[in-house]
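All the exercises in this workshop are built on plain-text protein records. A record pairs a protein's sequence with a compact description of its fold. Backbone structure tokens are a discrete shorthand for how the chain folds in space. Once this layout is familiar, the rest of the handout is easier to follow. As an example, a complete record with its sequence and its structure tokens follows.
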Amino acid sequence: MRELVYVYRHQRMVHRIDPAEFRCSLLAGQLADAWLDYHRKAGLASSSTYVAAIRSFLAFADSHLAAAGLDPGEARLDGGPIDLTEIIYPWEEYLLPRYKPTSNRPNVMAGALLILINHRAVRDTKVPKRLRRRAEQPPTFRGGSSEPLDEFANHERLVLRDAAQFDIRALEKRLSTGRALLAQGHDPRIAGWRSLPNLVWAARHGIMEIPALQAHFPAHIKWWPDELKELLADPPYKARFAGKYGVMTTVSGLLFPNELDLQPFRVLLLLAMGDATPEEVHDLTLGDLEFSDEGVRVLQTKLRAQRTRPHLHSNDGPRESDRPLSEDEVPGESAYPGSGKWDVPGLLRRLIAVNAMTREAFTTEPWLFTAVESTSNRRSMQAGRAKFKLSGRRFTDWIATHPDLEGEPVKISLPHDVRRLRKTSKTTRVAALGGSLSDLAGDDHHIEVFRGHYAHGTTAHVLAGRAINRAQRGVFNKIKPGKPVLVTEEAEALLTDPGATAELGISSDQGAALQQGELDMGVVNCRDPRDSPHTAKGKLCHVAPAMCMICPNAVVFTSQLPRLLMLDDHIAHMRKVLPPPVWKATWGVQADALKEVFAECADQLPDARRQIEEGKFRLDLPLGMRTEYDR
């Protein structure tokens, strides 16, 4: 018998492999030895995957070898008549149909087995060469791929938040009622079992078990206490419990929260603690919390990263001690001095308070999420760490308990995975901060981790799209009003006139320079080549003449129409060369601007065409422009 005992997520884990359970017992012992040695030397945090892989492979080898007429007892890692390589391949194929197509489990289990065989091969020269080579290779089949989880929509986040707050208020009211009944109760073995306060007393002192109820509690419901029948008739209990078992679980619920009662705290804490994973929240103990006037210091342990980190959550809400208590609250444990009700310190204080009776009545470890549920044989109640995995206690089960206005379960998008709460918290931070990836990643992620795991969310995509649209609008607003000014031959002669230059928004010197051709940019003229909207102020424009037709500085003389026609021909030629989307993005705006100019001086275009045919003009485009735009 090979046995491994270790602590994982604050829980004692025990794994055993008994070679006698398998017909290939020698192989089972060798794989188990390799597993124990590898666990210790590699410092593994958990071995559950390796144990599952060994058990699955051994069970398959037993049946596969027997079906092939071979003796499973002769299978071994260090040689022998059986080639284990020929068993590994069909075992991997055997795993595939047993999991969903998107599951990584077959790949992970095959990889775990190969790691153990390779670990043995490095230390044992008797391992056959063929098996050694197989162990050095990756699994045959790749891991499945699935769509990454998206965050909850904002309206879903608000629905979950409001439902969780409603449930916490209801839980505190129920526990307050239970404490009041407990104060009135007596030992039912002396005072009788037909009183609800006495039943609550029995639940508090651990004597309300199914055998005791069957022996002392009335068999027929008509003899039950009226207040108990009213309690069992309430909607939260009516559909879930019946008979003596219903009495035990319902009365226990007046003092102790169950896993479904703790789900609202889990939801609100994951929405508020964006830096904590669900596992980190579940693993919290009372010793991990340190309250102060500033808030609460939470010691979080991220097992996968092997990192422990403290995080201070400050008081964000009004102090409870500064407000009057409502009629549903009583002084004492239900009034929480310190921070507000719904910030992280307030939620943690309230969670500690609702579990106070559980810690008094049961000997439990100081888990923050401690729930009281029935034992597996449904005969008594026990306290333990909430796992939120069994049917009826999961996140999706909690969502189903909240009907909408039509009485149907509230509409929350699938899958109902608590990891989406963390992503919702992250993307809420994205929406609040904006900024760069380095700002959004914060101090608990690398930029690439944030990009791969959180930046794909719908909220991040929408915000990124809005940012791009804002940037594009800024550019378009800057260049859209810009429209070349067409100057006729008569107006050219007036460029030195103060009135004409003022109309164009230029100085007399600029007007003279335009008239003398000193500001000719190759296709059109420019008011000021060093004040281009496409180049940093003060620097010479470097995008002429490609962007001249959409520039507010452009001044077109009718004498330049031949060159503009030649540019239009060049753009038309590029339409045949470039893919339509590329042409539209590169030349579409310029082509539209040329059409507007040509429409204003259509009567002069024939003469301009004639001058082109006579060879009086040529179009000179910079080499950089051709290499950048013509490919």
Remarks:
- Residues 148 and 453 are 8 Å apart (CA to CA).
